[in-house]
Amino acid sequence: MKLDHIDTPAALIDIPRMQKNIARMQGHMNTLGVAFRPHVKTTKCIDVVRAQIAAGARGITVSTLKEAEAFFAAGVSDILYAVSIAPSKLPRALALRRQGCDLKLVVDNPTAAAAIAAFADQHGETFDVWIEVDTDGHRSGITPEQDTLLEVGRILHENGVKVGGVMTHAGSSYELHTPEALAALAEQERAGCVRAAERLRDAGIPCPAVSVGSTPTALAAEQLDGVTEVRAGVYVFFDLVMHNVGVCALEDIALSVLATVIGHQADKGWAILDAGWMAMSRDRGTSKQPHDFGYGQPCLLNGTPLGGFMVSGANQEHGILSSSEEGAHVDDIAQRFPIGMKLRILPNHACATGAQFPEYHAVSADGNSVEWRRFQGW
Amino acid sequence: MKLDHIDTPAALIDIPRMQKNIARMQGHMNTLGVAFRPHVKTTKCIDVVRAQIAAGARGITVSTLKEAEAFFAAGVSDILYAVSIAPSKLPRALALRRQGCDLKLVVDNPTAAAAIAAFADQHGETFDVWIEVDTDGHRSGITPEQDTLLEVGRILHENGVKVGGVMTHAGSSYELHTPEALAALAEQERAGCVRAAERLRDAGIPCPAVSVGSTPTALAAEQLDGVTEVRAGVYVFFDLVMHNVGVCALEDIALSVLATVIGHQADKGWAILDAGWMAMSRDRGTSKQPHDFGYGQPCLLNGTPLGGFMVSGANQEHGILSSSEEGAHVDDIAQRFPIGMKLRILPNHACATGAQFPEYHAVSADGNSVEWRRFQGW
Q: Which end of chain B has fewer CB atoms surrounding its CB within 10 Å, N or C?
């Protein structure tokens, strides 16, 4: 289907841009000599994941057991569930492993480790558990020097549960915007995770995998000694937040929302779009960054960004397109953006915007599109 | 299913609270002597809509043609599509009317009105078009005194299209928080919409319906002379934004997200939940209101709000529960919120949070729940 015939709002994937993003990340990982395990929470779409695996990815990372179940059903077996597991979710994890899924779990506390050990013993299962390491203080995990690290390792190892490795995610990289700061955080992420692995090994606990990553640190890493694999998610599409972080150009962003002009408030200099926050998501991730893109950057249908304009406001199904200069008035808004005109809006955060849609329209270089399903829920 | 057995995160509807909210709004409409047409964009769930209709609602309001198609298929025929229509969507609207759906369209500009008239003529269809009136300057619509109002009316009427009425939505009511201000805006909304209808009638254009509404103005309205019907959506669940507006108690909020404690950062005073922004949505609607609830208000499983705590931060699948006092540290966080503990989180914005889930778990007074599907997309 041609773009002109797709009903709006719709989530578009620019396939050539996506393939370029995939090749860029995989090439960097190959150069650094580490395996790459993409985080599929960004897309929840088997068509995208197949392209990542075709380019060289080894296994995937998921953020929910529903992702693990869906991608295992689609033929992917090597899966890291990268959220510290709630003990009540262990039966679902067991069911996946019993079906032959090489599912790895994550834990960052003694209570859940003990629950895994008890459940594993009860069911005659070793599991494969990775310990989450906190290398930047932004969320969960155990810092490399904490005693809890060895405590968790011992609870697992001494009760017959396989300790498969350590993993960390330096998500505070999203708050940076210089190459130097990103390279420094990438090194901090690497060094902290390697240090945690060494402490475990020194204590007699095997720790084969050392897994690090976030899109900005993965792209900024200059060497990854001691690391076995890297994880990243949003790089496959990129978005305006990543553009502000400095790891992609606007022209690299592969996800956009197709929208139609449905009205004007000429005295305010507004064009009204049929893409509101239900389509763009409520993510305002650029609001604290160097360039605030509002609810998104409008582009022509061919992908050219319309400098000087932004989606400045959003209701559930209405977007407001106006000047991106504070207080500036666009006198000829109705002439520039007539009723029925279609635009592509680059999103702040590809993970959040994609999640608003049950499907993507994946657009080839020739302008034809096919539908790629994505799924929702837990 | 009992709450304890529902996997997390999950969207819960408290059925007794929902029924109370439905009865409250319908009772107020009955007292004011107007029809009530609930906006189903909040729930996108036929089970909820059936409860609204059983209580006395006449017809529904939708924000997308997909809602119109889904609810018509489920047996609802009187449907107002309350977004100014993009001309490219007219074939879908025609298909619905040809199947017997009493679908009403909305328009707020001469270009789309002319496109409707041309399309109607081409297909031998009169349609039923309501003109959107702008009574508070917050979004789309034509102000009551603008010449464009009569121009749009004439384009429709003189070309054989039925002008079914006028409609307005005083969405700026979400920014208010005193009964006096809400009552004043409700009167402004009423008077502006009635004035627009009178101008059309004075010009010889029939205008049977006069439709107004938003949850806050609907509840605050003291008299609705000249109005034929009211629309409101979020009242069915309410949320923290509505609580800040002053139209509901925390104990009225019928939607919550069931979450599990999966970790701690004790030195920071944090408990980590398995409900992040993918579950709560990125809506931070309370951030500019008198009380900022972060990403949500934690409650015990029985619904009792946990004063002094909030979900202060969110990653995609991680929520951070901490003190709601800036800078305060909870020393015994791991004791108060042990691993595996389940909580209910009240959301900022029920429309946004509900949209993150493919289903609700609707919980009866006896604690048993059933699954109610909702749909996604356009």
A: N
